[in-house]
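Sequence in, structure out. First:
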Amino acid sequence: MQATKTCGFVKISLLFFLLCSIPLVMMAQGEGTEKIYPIEQIQQGFSKKYVYKRQVIDSPLALQIPLLESKDPEVSLEFYRFKSQRKLMNWISSAGLGLSLYSLIKPGKVTDGFYLSTIGTAALVNIYVGSISMRHLNRALVRYNKLAHSSPQLSIEFTPNERSGSSLALQWKYNF
C-alpha cells in the first residue's frame, strides 16, 4: 500500500514538472528577428546627444545595449574599441590627477617643467585617443543605422497623374 502511494506521488510530481516545463520550452530564447530602431545624433554646441526610441541619451556609453542588441560583429567590435579607448582616457586622466595631487602634497619634489610637460602630454594624448574613440563610435553607429534601415519594408504608394490616371503601387523593399 505504501509503495503504490509513493509511486502515485512520483507520477503526479513528474506530471506536474512536465506541465510546468512546457511553457518554459516554448518561451525559450531563440534566433529571432527583433526590430532594431535607428539612433540619431544631435550636435548641441560641443556635445553630442543621441536619440533612441524618442529618448535623449547624453552619454555614448549608454548606447551599449541597443548597439549590442543588433548582434552584428562589426558593430560590437567598433563599440568595444570605443569603450576600451574611453577606459584608457580615464587612466591617463587619473595619472595626471595623481601627479597634481602629489605636487600639491609635496610642493618641492616636482619641478615646474616636469609637471607642465607631463600634464600637457596627458592632455594631448587624451585629445588624440578621444578623437580616435569617437571615430570608432561613429563607425558603429553608421553600421547599426544601416542595419536598422535595411529591414524589409512593405508600402503602398498612390500616385495621381492627370494624363494617364492615378496609379496604386505595392512596394516591397528587401536587401539581399
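Second:
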Amino acid sequence: MTKIEELLRLKIKPKEKQAQLVDAIVSKKISAKEFIAFFQSASDVDKGSCADVMKHVSAESPEILMPHIDVLVKYINYKAPRVKWGVPEAIGNMAKEYPDATAKAIPYLLENTTDSDINTTVIKWCAAFSLAEIAKHSPKTRKQLIPVFEKLIRGEKNNGVKNVYVKAIKAIERQ
C-alpha cells in the first residue's frame, strides 16, 4: 500500500485526511508525480478525494501541480462530480501564477457552464471560478471570455454563479 493509500484509509475525518495529504505533498514527502499517477489510476471515490486535495495544494503551492496541468485539463469533465469540482478549482488557483498555461483549460471548463443534469450548481460555480481567474490573470484570454461571461450572466439563474462572472468583469475593468 502506498503512502497515499495509507492516508486515504486512515480512520479519521475526511478533512483531516485531506489536510495530511496536502501537507505531505506540499512538504514533498509525497511527490506530485506519484500523487498524479495515483489519482489517474484511483477509484472514483479516491479520485474525488485527490481532486479536493489538488484544490488545496494549488492554493498553497501552485508550482507543485503545474508540471501536471495537462492531466488536470484531461479530468475537468470526468464523470465523478467531486472531480468536476476539485480539478477546476485547482486550475483556477494556478491561474494567478500560470495564466497562459491554464488557458488551455478554457474549452473544457466552458462545457461545465451550461444547465444540464450533470452540471450542478457546484460544478457550474467551480467552472466559473476557474474561468474568472484565468480571465483576470491572462489578458490574452479576455477578448474570448468577456463576451462569454456577459452571455452567461444573462442566462444564469443562480446568483452565486452569476456573481463570479460579474466580479471577474469588474476586476478586469479596474485593471
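Remark: The chain has twelve helices and no strands.
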